[in-house]
Amino acid sequence: MPPTVAIPAQRYGLRTRTAVTEKTAPTAPAAPPREENKFLLLLLAAFLIQLFSNAALLVPALGAVRPAQTIGGLALLIVICQTVAGGRRLLLAPPDGYLLLAFTVACAFTVVNAVWPNYAFEACLDLVKMVVIYFLIVNVAASEAPLRLLLWTMVACGLFPALGSLWNWTHGANVEGRAAWMGFFANPNEMAYCLVVLLPIAWALAQNANWMGRIVLAALAGLFLIPIYLSFSRGSLIGLAVVGLLIGLRQKNAIARAATVGLLAAGVLAGSMYWSRQAGFSDIQGDADFNERLTTYQVAWSMYSQSPVLGVGLNCSSVAWPLYAPSESLAHHKWLITHNTFIQAFSETGTAGGGLLLAFFATVLWRARKVRRSPQTPERLRELGKGLEISFCGFLVCGMSGGYVMSWFPYLLAAFIGALNAAALQGSKA
Fold first, then answer.
1. Which of 155, 170, 227, 356 could make an S-S bridge to 103, C-beta 3.0–4.6 Å?
2. Among residues 24, 57, 90, which one ends one of the domains?
3. Which residues, including other chains, have CB under 8 Å from residue 59's CB and lie 6 or more apart?
């Protein structure tokens, strides 16, 4: 016989204290979301739309309004007011959040030793914006419904760079014969890797979507593949292959796994047949672009060797290029970015900053894996955990051939993983 528990009469409107069993004990109705929380969610969705759409570039008049700063600042002000008033407990997502804050502080110190202090200072301000959005997402999307809404918004927003790149491609507005768009996506590599990390999220959302939602997500994923290929970004295509392989291995049955791997192999074969960029995957040793990237690694190492404590300043490796690059490289390029996120971090922010960023990335990946594998995590959230873990792995692979320390997307993915962890803890206690 199940044990009895005493239920407060006032809580359920009873006149007397009644002993009831655990099986028949009534549950309190879930409190409806507060209006200010709905508003915060809408603000974050609007921020994602603005970020992907480059609204200030499409509509120059919006530049005076500064939509990104306005939206983010308003959301931050609301969260601060709620926290001060006692209506919200601020989530700092330790240790991930603490590591990100420590990395931001380390970056601020790099301004002292930067080759261009003002440029490094402006980069630090941009990083602070990313950190603010990180904590806003962790605090606002700390349950399943808002988390799904923001993930749906981000995947749908992938239409902006995808369609924008295809529009430019069809109208001949390319970057050395490679598809790209504008703003954050004016670099073909950044445009492609952004779409790569959206694909696993679309796959994860489809696991619990209705048939219409699955059709929409499948159409978006298929559309994203076109500009990824037309970017001719070798690093992003390798990231795409890794993402596809991991999605295949995460399928629930052997037939689905085999089919996914087979489609991946067919895609690799078909892509190699229509590759039109001069720089390909053959004759790597004689590839000028590949050797150029190796040169950026050597130059970045020189920067780190001469400034191992503070580096050359956040985001300053490109402006420091002429000071460290060999003369034969300077004859072809006045400046170049470091084509590796991890080497870039050490060259720009020194040992402390680079170490903290690597620790942050490792902790985020560990957290995503932990949430996905925990038996206490509700099944629906585990599916999201699979997608976000694969997305972050895709970023790490793409980051091996691209300098993305100051890209928004690793911090957005980390924020969603932090929010997922909070939602999983909440779900396990329900």
1. 356
2. 90
3. none
